[in-house]
Amino acid sequence: RGSRPSDTRSVPVPISVPGARLTPTVSPPQGFPGAGHPPPVGPYPGGPYGGGPPPGPYRQPPPGGPYGGPYGGPQPGPYGGAAPGGNTPPGVDPEVFSWFQSVDTDHSGFISIKELKQALVNNNWSSFNDETCLLMINMFDKTRSGRIDVYGFSALLRFIQQWRSLFQQYDRDQSGSISFSELQQAFSQMGYNLSPQFSQLLLARYSQRSPSPNPSIQLDRFIHICMQLQSLTDAFREKDTALQGNVRLSYEDFLSMVVTRML
């Protein structure tokens, strides 16, 4: 039986925000983030665990963008086409298009995992890890080509704004990373009722290796953990039709659930 998961600067920079940094073609400046969920915002109504369904595929950031971020333009159009050279595509913020062209180092009209990884660094200047970059590419890759076009990139920036805003909200000591107590509080406020032992397990698995006795996670790992938690919770909820917080699964059903949800 499954357990009950929850009750429910030496160069100019495009943005100056703690958290992630976007590095276009030059060295370290400041920056920004599958199954397709924005950050969880509260308990699931009437359900025994957390992580409510979003009102739409991408929630809009507050006016002006969190922490002074310059985006918040119109919702992008359908994905799938390469960006027209030189001219800003309809529905895309001109500044976002400029960043897209900077990150698109091979001028293909698409952003690959390698290009995205080269453009994103954490608050401690470490690169985003491969798994999180792959997760984000998969989320916004509507053509299943392993790349995102300018519309997917625009949506991805909006999405990362949301995660970066949450990350800074939960980083209460403004250290640039999330500690054990901050992670526990984040899970609680997202509507997940998870044990301290589980949070410790996640920190041990996802924190950067260091001699520090107090492990913590950067923005890329925070995104990865929360997205996988949401995805697996959704998979569990599909099986828990009575919303009892427990299900009966065969071994192969369990494996299938994990494989299809681990992005």
UniProtKB/TrEMBL annotation:
Database matches in PROSITE patterns: EF_HAND_1, EF_HAND_2
InterPro entries documented for this protein: EF-hand-dom_pair (IPR011992), EF_Hand_1_Ca_BS (IPR018247), EF_hand_dom (IPR002048), Peflin/Sorcin_CaBP (IPR051426)
Compositional bias segments (type: Pro residues): 26-65
SMART domains the record matches: EFh
Positions with biased composition (Gly residues): 66-84
Pfam families: EF-hand_6, EF-hand_7
Annotated protein name in UniProt: Peflin
Organism: Sterrhoptilus dennistouni
